[in-house]
Amino acid sequence: MMDFGTPVLEPGSANGVKQVPQFNPYQDNGGTVASIAGDDYVIVAADTRFTLGYSIPTRKISRVLKINDKVMLGTAGMQADMCALHKVMSTRMRMYEHDNNKPMTFNAVSQMLSTVLYYKRFFPYYTFNIVAGLDDKGEGWVCGYDAIGSFEQRKIVCNGAGTKLMQPVFDNQVDWAQSWDGAGKPNLSLEQATDLMKDAFTSAAEREITVGDTLQIYKITKDGIELEEFELKKD
User: Is Nucleus among the key words of this record (predicted)?
Assistant: First the structure.
């Protein structure tokens, strides 16, 4: 009887022990999601490029899921895990609405996503998420998540392949992280935030090959959700 605890020997190998490569269930399909929140709005943006190594299987995927008229979920990372996560979130959202006869609030969605991700912590979804929306007072907020559900509520969050290129821009232009003049943070209008998002993604697409094609910008206000598309580099 074979002892499964004993390594399999291979005479031709350098050290006498056969090396068996481990299966990796994860892959990074690129993409970037970002959000800027204001006093009475929040915008969620994501590019539509789907990459597999140096290949581009498709240039038109959506990384943003509408939870309701005031809350949206954006996801970067592995496409298969993103689809699975969005399916779970959609199902739980419908169950919540049937049980409570009202749509989920921003705080409820942000906490539910954290619970869903943490439940899978031993075999996590390879996704990096943001939840953006309006709170009960109509003020915009966004939460950024890691793969196992830890999150932080802020006014600006960026996740995905272009984060290292875009986050410093947002820190400087939105948070004024290095401002010394004492003037305080600027109160960006919806139009200014939209233009800043376009500039940030355009810059990231120049240096990051997994970012490009089309930028989808969802604008959430008290009147609902509006979609604007902006063309990025396609090479």
Answer: yes
